[in-house]
Amino acid sequence: MSGTRAPQRADGLSELLLSRIRDVPDHPEPGVMFKDITPLLADPVAFAALTDALAARCAELGATKVVGLEARGFILGAPAAVRAGVGFVPVRKAGKLPGATLGQAYDLEYGSAEIEIHAEDLRPEDRVLVVDDVLATGGTAEASVHLLRRSGAAVAGVSVLMELGFLAGRTRVEAALEGAPLDALVTV
Ligand SMILES: O=P(O)(O)OC[C@H]1O[C@H](OP(=O)(O)OP(=O)(O)O)[C@H](O)[C@@H]1O
Ligand SMILES: Nc1ncnc2[nH]cnc12
């Protein structure tokens, strides 16, 4: 696909995943190169390989829950949680969750938003792996880390399928993570 750098892993996983991500120029607005993961989801081999990698990371970090970020983080995070044998907790856009919520406002590459979680689904002893598809400006992941800390859970790390390195989101997420790892299976 266009506009990408060489894969980072020696096992061929990054190359496989990258080959299934489609660049869509000017979506959802002019100037944005949208990274479309639907071809990857439609490929059972690539989707299973991604799920296995995320589940393995969950085990390596001793995570007791996967938190997925709406909406594409749900698609990636939920099967990884099942594969790892841990629970899944959704971070949703504001106004969707029916129970008592904790909320956090944040900025996107395009626009702004607020996220919420049912904090009652996390225990103080939980170690959470945050999963999402794309790290762009880092605003969503950063807000999630702050939200999770406020919920009382420990953040074991953040794992994303794809990091858009030219947007420098890593810096702000690593600052929020205070030493916990930020992993990207593919960086472009
Ligand atoms: O690093 P950032 O600049 O915060 O951007 C990354 C976030 O943006 C996208 O979500 P989006 O809110 O577009 O929603 P969707 O997954 O519901 O399509 C993507 O799935 C990440 O969650
Ligand atoms: N360029 C992009 N492609 C896909 N998802 C995104 N989320 C934020 N920026 C994005």
TrEMBL record:
<dbReference type="InterPro" id="IPR005764">
    <property type="entry name" value="Ade_phspho_trans"/>
</dbReference>
<dbReference type="GO" id="GO:0005737">
    <property type="term" value="C:cytoplasm"/>
</dbReference>
<comment type="similarity">
    <text>Belongs to the purine/pyrimidine phosphoribosyltransferase family.</text>
</comment>
<dbReference type="GO" id="GO:0006168">
    <property type="term" value="P:adenine salvage"/>
</dbReference>
<dbReference type="GO" id="GO:0044209">
    <property type="term" value="P:AMP salvage"/>
</dbReference>
<comment type="subunit">
    <text>Homodimer.</text>
</comment>
<dbReference type="InterPro" id="IPR050054">
    <property type="entry name" value="UPRTase/APRTase"/>
</dbReference>
<keyword id="KW-0808">Transferase</keyword>
<dbReference type="GO" id="GO:0002055">
    <property type="term" value="F:adenine binding"/>
</dbReference>
<comment type="pathway">
    <text>Purine metabolism; AMP biosynthesis via salvage pathway; AMP from adenine: step 1/1.</text>
</comment>
<keyword id="KW-0328">Glycosyltransferase</keyword>
<dbReference type="InterPro" id="IPR000836">
    <property type="entry name" value="PRTase_dom"/>
</dbReference>
<dbReference type="GO" id="GO:0016208">
    <property type="term" value="F:AMP binding"/>
</dbReference>
<dbReference type="Pfam" id="PF00156">
    <property type="entry name" value="Pribosyltran"/>
</dbReference>
<dbReference type="InterPro" id="IPR029057">
    <property type="entry name" value="PRTase-like"/>
</dbReference>
<dbReference type="GO" id="GO:0003999">
    <property type="term" value="F:adenine phosphoribosyltransferase activity"/>
</dbReference>
<dbReference type="GO" id="GO:0006166">
    <property type="term" value="P:purine ribonucleoside salvage"/>
</dbReference>
<keyword id="KW-0963">Cytoplasm</keyword>
<keyword id="KW-0660">Purine salvage</keyword>
<protein>
    <recommendedName>
        <fullName>Adenine phosphoribosyltransferase</fullName>
        <ecNumber>2.4.2.7</ecNumber>
    </recommendedName>
</protein>
<feature type="domain" description="Phosphoribosyltransferase">
    <location>
        <begin position="59"/>
        <end position="162"/>
    </location>
</feature>
<comment type="function">
    <text>Catalyzes a salvage reaction resulting in the formation of AMP, that is energically less costly than de novo synthesis.</text>
</comment>
